[in-house]
Design a protein that fits this description.
alpha/beta, Rossmann fold, two-stranded antiparallel sheet, globular, binds adenosine monophosphate
Length: about 210
């Protein structure tokens, strides 16, 4: 049976990095609601502006809008089989909505927790930079690019620093994760659909552990 793989973990746990590897190496499409919302930056509509404002503060976009973009994205032909959700669901309502979607698509949900201690996260997030061209993720403390501020693969590309990767927004995002998203671990655990990998250590080792679960 095709699956919907749900990566759950605090902001900065490395969900995006792992989802990208699954896409590159196993051809499993990565669907990141955060990336989709960030792409709306280029649209000059009241909704797009509202979304950017909410994101910058570290709060969540409404369940209704989020479900709408997830439905639309997962109706494309590349998501007819197994795909991975990175950053969705994040609330109990979204988890319910995903049950409906999985039922309609005849897929089973497999949730995987990417577990990481809270004290590690602030440094990871405030130090995070990414290439706007290829999406490669760097960290000024733990994985600096060869030339400060520029991508190794695209030396012409200044790295992005996300508007919500500042200390104040990170605090809000971590609190929001604890309050709204962490309870989903219990929800998936109760129905026997939860696995767990450690988000600490080498990216390749974490990937090997994660990949073995699929
Ligand atoms: P991320 O890139 O996953 O850290 O998401 C960045 C921001 O996008 C979040 O802090 C929220 O403002 C918004 N966002 C992403 N996914 C969701 C979601 N499932 N529900 C509500 N808001 C979301």
């Amino acid at each position: 049976m095709d699956k919907i793989i749900v990566l759950i973990g605090a902001p900065g746990a490395g969900k995006g990095t792992q989802a990208r590897l699954l896409q590159e190496r196993r051809n499993i499409p990565q669907i990141s609601t955060g990336d989709m919302f960030r792409e709306m930056r280029s649209l000059d509509t009241p909704l797009a502006r509202e979304v950017q404002e909410i994101m910058a503060s570290g709060k969540l976009i409404s369940d209704e809008i989020t479900y709408r973009i997830v439905r639309e994205r997962t109706s494309k032909s590349d998501t007819a089989g197994t795909f991975v959700l990175d950053g969705y669901p994040r609330t109990a309502v979204q988890a319910e909505q995903l049950e409906t979607l999985a039922g309609e698509q005849g897929k089973e949900i497999l949730a995987i927790e990417v577990d990481i201690p809270a004290e590690e996260l602030m440094k990871r997030l405030t130090g995070r930079r990414s290439c706007p061209e290829c999406g490669e993720i760097y960290n000024i403390y733990s994985k600096p690019p060869k030339v400060q501020g520029f991508c190794d693969m695209h030396p012409e590309c200044p790295l992005d620093h996300r508007a919500d990767d500042n200390e104040e927004s990170v605090k809000t995002r971590l609190d929001t994760y604890q309050a709204n998203t962490a309870p989903l671990l219990e929800y998936y655990g109760r129905s026997g659909r939860l696995s767990k990998v450690s988000g600490i250590g080498d990216v390749e080792e974490i990937y090997a552990e994660l990949s073995a679960l699929l």
